[in-house]
Specification:
Layout: H1 3-21, E1 28-34, H2 38-52, E2 55-61, H3 63-71, E3 78-80, H4 84-87, E4 94-100, E5 103-108, E6 122-125, H5 130-142, E7 151-153, H6 156-164, E8 170-174, E9 184-189, E10 199-204, H7 210-217, H8 219-227, E11 231-232
Parallel strand pairs: 1-2, 1-3, 6-7, 6-8
Antiparallel strand pairs: 3-10, 4-10, 4-11, 5-8, 5-9
Length: 234
């Protein structure tokens, strides 16, 4: 490659990299949401975008990862977290508890595994992720220790994929994640007494996100979440 072509390609790469890190257009609302909210957040956000004429940009990941990115300056107007702990660390203008969830143990479709105690290879969320923290609390309450073959996923959908692809015999995910992948099924419900309190708060970070924030607070948005299997915030 000649020096001129090299400089052109390098310059183009740097330009694209800068563009990717730039703030979104003024008519765009950026939503950072927990991975488990992908479908319901898109349902509501896309409907609101069509009605308002405002574009919605989404970023889905584990809540702890999103909180770190926001603190480091990543653009975000609304933060939908799977854990109030992380929503409290991003300097919200206003927030409210939105929906709740529960934990289940999943297995690959057709597996004979009946529960956590039978799993030699268990998929759990990483220690800092909400699903990892909730799963650890539930297993502690049940008196079940993770097996030596435990593997970790960066977020709940990563845990789900590990089970679906057979990398793990079982995994702990939210009940709302099970319908997302037809390759998995519920092995067992975790006992009610072991279920941690799971709350998803919505945090408003800029006034640009105010209209969508209020839309999420409305009864119609809660109904949309309930249709996806979420519960009212406990």
């Amino acid at each position: 490659m000649s020096c001129d072509i090299y400089r052109f390609v390098r310059g183009l790469f740097l330009l694209l990299a800068c563009a990717a890190c730039a703030d979104p257009a003024p008519d765009t609302v950026t939503v950072c949401a927990a991975a488990s909210l992908r479908e319901v957040a898109t349902d509501i956000g896309d409907a609101w975008a069509r009605a308002s004429g405002t574009r919605v940009a989404y970023r889905f990941e584990s809540s702890d990862t999103l909180a770190r990115q926001i603190r480091e300056g990543a653009p975000c107007d609304l933060f939908l977290s799977a854990d109030p702990r992380w929503a409290a660390e991003v300097g919200a203008i206003e927030s409210f508890p939105w929906v709740g969830n529960r934990l289940v143990c999943v297995r690959p479709k057709g597996s004979a595994l009946a529960g956590l105690a039978q799993a030699r290879r268990l998929a759990l969320g990483s220690e800092g992720s909400p699903i990892g923290r909730y799963a650890a609390a539930a297993m502690g309450a049940m008196g079940v220790a993770p097996p030596e073959g435990t593997i970790h996923g960066s977020n709940v959908r990563d845990v789900l994929t590990k089970v679906a692809e057979g990398a793990a015999d079982a995994g702990i995910v939210y009940a709302t994640d099970v319908p997302v992948d037809p390759r998995v099924e519920i092995a067992c419900e975790l006992p009610a007494a072991a279920q941690p309190r799971i709350v998803y708060p919505v945090a408003l970070l800029t006034e640009r996100g105010r209209a969508l924030f209020e839309t999420l607070r409305a009864p119609a948005a809660l109904s949309a979440a309930e249709r996806r299997g979420f519960t009212r915030a406990p």
